[in-house]
Write a structure and sequence with these properties.
By secondary structure, the protein is α+β, with helices and mostly antiparallel strands. It has 7 helices and 7 strands. The two termini are 45 Å apart.
Length: 183
């Protein structure tokens, strides 16, 4: 889903062709953090008597509360980082919005004629079974290569992006240049 703030990034008469978000498997990773939080809290509660004898009741409950606050904050910030990452492919450029931290965002854009190649990578059985991987967008600039980590169906999305780029080039490269290159 494209938000209103993303539409403001578009130029006049520019149309969104597709968007790329992270795969739903990221939610499983975030859920595993909750499982880790509950298991570690259960262990701390199981050894409550021993720990209270060592550090005292007030410090134990204060520490456990602080542990929960820090852990939940970490989970929230990690979720925000993953949820707000988006790549928007329009009919003339690619816009990559990377949420680096809660208060830091990087926006990269590249015209479709500057894209040199688009590759998809899946590694291992886990990525193959669940259908996610990385999409690498290599540009003419050495500093603005874009990587979409945990992209859903990376091979299909790579093919779709390549089709958008090819359609752009077919519409914008003069026919005389194409004929000259064929000779």
């Amino acid at each position: 889903m494209v938000k209103k703030e993303h539409i403001s990034l578009l130029k006049e008469n520019e149309q969104i062709i597709m968007t790329l978000h992270r795969h739903w498997i990221i939610l499983v990773f975030h859920f595993s953090y909750f499982v880790l939080l509950f298991v570690s809290s259960w262990v701390l509660l199981d050894y409550q008597g021993i720990i209270i004898d060592l550090i005292g009741s007030a410090l134990y409950w204060w520490g456990l509360s602080l542990y929960w606050i820090i852990f939940l904050t970490f989970i929230l910030l990690d979720w925000i980082n993953d949820e707000l990452d988006i790549f928007i492919i329009t009919d003339s450029r690619i816009i990559g919005i990377d949420q680096i931290s809660a208060l830091s965002r990087s926006v990269t854009e590249c015209s479709l004629d500057r894209v040199q190649e688009v590759n998809a990578h899946t590694t291992g059985i886990f990525q193959t079974i669940f259908g996610f991987g990385d999409v690498h967008i290599h540009t003419a600039s050495e500093t603005s290569n874009m990587i979409v980590n945990y992209a859903p169906d990376p091979i299909e999305n790579c093919r779709r992006i390549n089709n958008v780029i090819q359609a752009y080039r077919n519409a914008h490269i003069p026919q005389a240049i194409v004929e000259k290159q064929a000779v």
